[in-house]
Amino acid sequence: MMTDSSSHSPSRSLSHSSSLSRLRLCLHLFASHYRHAPLQASAILLGIMLAVTLLIGVYATNENAKQSYGNVSELLSQQARLSISHRTQDTIDESVYFALANAGFNTIASIEGIATDEQGRLWRINSSDIIAAISTSKQQNANDSSSSANMTSTNIPLAELLSGQPKILMSTSQRDRISNITNQSNRIILNGMPLNIITIDDSWGLGSALLADISLAQPLLNMQGKLSYIAVFNSSAENSNIADPNAADTTASEADTQLIARLTNTLTQAGIDTSKLNFTTQTSEGESLTALTASFHLNLDAMSMLAFVVGLFIAYNGVRYSLMKRQKLLVQIMQQGLDRRTVMLALSIEILCLVFVGCVLGFIVGLQLSQWLQPMVAITLEQLYGAKLLPGIWQWQWFAQALILTLSAAFAACIPMLISLIKTPLAQGAQKQPQNQRFNMIHWRQFIIAALLLLICTVGFAFTEQYRHSLVLLGIISVAIPLLLPQCLHWAVNLLSPFMPKGLWQYVIAETKEIIAPLALAMMAMLLALCANIAMNTLVGSFEITLKKWLDARLHADLYIRPNPNQIDALILLLNNDPKVEAIYDQWTIDSNLNRIETPQTQVPINLVSRDHLSLTETTVFKITADDFWPTFTAGESLMISEPLSIKYQLDIGDKVQLSQLNQHVLTVGGIYYDYGNPQGEAIITQSLWQQSQLPAKPISLAVSYQGDLTPLQNSISQKINLSSAYMYSQQRIKTEAITIFNKTFSITVVLNSLTLLVAAIGLFSACMMLTQARQAPLARLYALGVSRNQLRIMVLVQMLFIVLLTCLVALPTGALLGYLLIHKVTLQAFGWSIAMVWDWAAYFQVVVIAVVSCLFAVCLPLYWQTRKPLISSLQQEAL
């Protein structure tokens, strides 16, 4: 038996060596093919690279944002354990900070506010005790050798900052943005105070913040003796009489509870009323930001996946074209003795190599795209949700995920084609077989599948109530719509064929049927991008019109003022003494929790609001109300809630709720009103109920109806009670800033949408280039029969324009359908915003023009190159 085994061993080795040599030979042939036809490899790599670029760019941006939520940190410092703020006011007395610091707690005092420059632009000012911040950072970095920021490596003029000199810190990137706006790189004037700029590296995590020491910020923001909040950190130097020896044995939540208990005990002993203080842990803050911004990030993810699919269409089109061009070569090498398994393995290795190279290129460009997108996302998240983004980092796992996803999609798309190609009977020789019948069958099957998917989604949308489910259905529709296109193009050409005159134009129509198959994937990608563009234009345009109408109804006063609480009395006295003031309207606001009676375990964080009766009746735009709403509301038996709160937590008219600030008093939901200005849920109670519930008596903001120019009134308020103009908003200013924030909110989505359309245009260009190259011989034959070069160019151009215009014709209704679903399903469920759909014909026309121009550029350049070639070289393509 040993002899038999040893006799078979050399044959196995030879067989293995022979298989490897055949595989190397096959790979060498494929590499030689791409050296002679680099356009095919370029098209495949381009599609993969574009797909991965947009996928990684958005993915990295989202991951960095979410990581920032989970690592909520103080500027120039590290992650805080918890924060202390006032329950009902925007500020907290600085005596709380001194009491904790004297007791040995590791704390940082912080102030946040708004300042205006000379042009009236708003700037967010952050301030802290810089010495305490850097000391805390040094202490934590000493225990964390992996910390990326060396807090002692930058020269900060601490003595000048602590002495209250007018100097602020900002990141290099923010300084560059300010320089572009103000044309000054080292100086900015805020609230009338000239401030010198100190620039530090972006790695310190300032982002878009302007950081000042408290000694400067308190007079700058008129907050003497006041703080916005106090950050509390872990400390290894806490007093032994405060530390809990059993803390190491407790869970994280218990440790937070114990820390809050120690803080409360210390403040109580210092004579401070802790019932008015709110203790927020870092974990809950990060989770709340994650939940609040989930819809925004999901929207970006959906756009990136759309661009990824469009890019894969391009790559698949390149792979298919390359395989079709090598059909003769594959049959010949199998006739020469190469087995089918070796050829299949070689093709798989080829696709693997192309995907890997494309992913590497796409990953590098995608990280650069993320660096470009992140400032846009940071500004949006900061203005909408108050979230600050830390400097971004990249992880190799992102590349692995993109590679696996791309490989899976590539092989799922290509394996059926590879199997069909490998199974080609060798008895056919190397003659090309007509493909029309097979493609007609494929296109008909695609149409049937698309129709079934659309039917399933129609039924699904009738039952879905979660925006995630609606986005999945919307994604299915986005895939189904392009599948309809090839068959629709065939039907359109067949309908037009009888009306064409005989001769060259009849030939043009006949050949148009032939080029639908090779162009199908490129046009499907273009259709998908057009639909997305039309849908997004519909959403943005409709939302902008709806927002403007809502602002017109919501803003009834001429001036809106939000002073510091200690300035309210002086402000009211000043306004009452001004004869031009026609009316003063009050608003009260505090943070609260809403509890639904049917599900008592659910605590919903909301803004509890009250206004004077006249403001409520004149400015509230209701979606629905109970029949007896106003009598029950005035009597304090019911409340009104915002539409986002109603949709997110499925609250409806007649539901019983409790509010934590009203001693669990049971109220009935009597009205639901439209609200486009608050990402958090809001509930409104009557003024009498507010006053009966022992809530803060002083209003948090005032609205003023005024006769004449507002400028003298604002100057008077600024001079007499020292209130910055940053806290006074005219009606026009509010509208302008709301539209500005709105534009910034959708700017990144519009950018991604435009990039997706650009990807599709590049795909159309590469497809036209390959198709024109493949049609050299037919065009040369027509030229030999007497058709001039100009006639050939016009013929091909008309064919392409016809197909593109038919694609646009399909894109208009299907894009409007996607826009309708985005508005009435996804946006409504995700954000709680009811938007009236408006047809933006100018935007639709613009998209069609972009598609036509892309088509002209994609066709004219390669067509000119090909028709300039000598006749004989073009005819020789017939033999290839």
**Which percent range describes the beta-strand content?**
5-15%
Low-pLDDT stretches: 1-14, 141-153, 236-254, 429-433
State the separation between the terminal residues, measured CA to CA.
54 Å
Radius of gyration, CA atoms, in whole angstroms: 34 Å
Major sheet characteristics: 6 strands, mixed
| Largest sheet, spatial ordering of strands | 8-4-3-10-1-11
Describe what this molecule looks like in 3D.
With 880 residues, the protein is of the alpha+beta class. Among the domains are: 72-285, no CATH class; 434-554 and 734-880, no CATH class; 581-706, no CATH class. It has 27 helices and 21 strands. A 6-stranded mixed beta sheet has the order 8-4-3-10-1-11. α10 (294-325) packs antiparallel against α16 (504-554), α14 packs antiparallel against α15 (467-496) and α25 (789-831) packs antiparallel against α26. This is ABC transporter permease. Keywords: Cell membrane, Membrane, Transmembrane, Transmembrane helix.
